[in-house]
Amino acid sequence: MTLLDINAYTLILHLHSVIRWVVLILAIIVTLKSLMGVFGNPVYAKLDNILSASYVGLMDLMLLLGLVLYVFLSPITQSAFNDFGAAMGNAAVRFWAVEHITIMIIAVALAHIGRSKAKKNPDVKKKYKFQAIFFGISLLVMLAGMPWDRF
Prior knowledge:
The protein has helices at 3-39, 46-73, 75-82, 84-88, 91-120, 124-145. With 151 residues, it is an all-alpha fold. It has one domain. Helix 2 crosses helix 3 (75-82), helix 2 packs antiparallel against helix 5 and helix 3 (75-82) crosses helix 5 (91-120). The longest helix has 37 residues, at 3-39.
């Protein structure tokens, strides 16, 4: 690994880490706002569309940054790729090589499903319902896959 690789790794890792907090906060906001729409007198406003599009867009950005780390820059995944059998025997390496990426891809897919179903539905209550369900599950899945020992 060259100095340029280390700097790119550090930059993207920090960017990925900082954006996760924005995504987490946005996920909480959009899920709560969707729940309020389900149980209140809803009007699906421009802000609702902006928030849901921002949540899904930032999830996509996180996935892209994570994939760059996973495939090209992370020394952890590079060592796992060299000996996957040994990596599966090490819980920390297995988390980064298999569990984290799998869980986060599922979270992104759920966010996309919720956004797509909400956009296509003309009924405002159902828009909020789809968002509340899929964004809420996406949030829970994301929380399950976050590395809580690395703040």
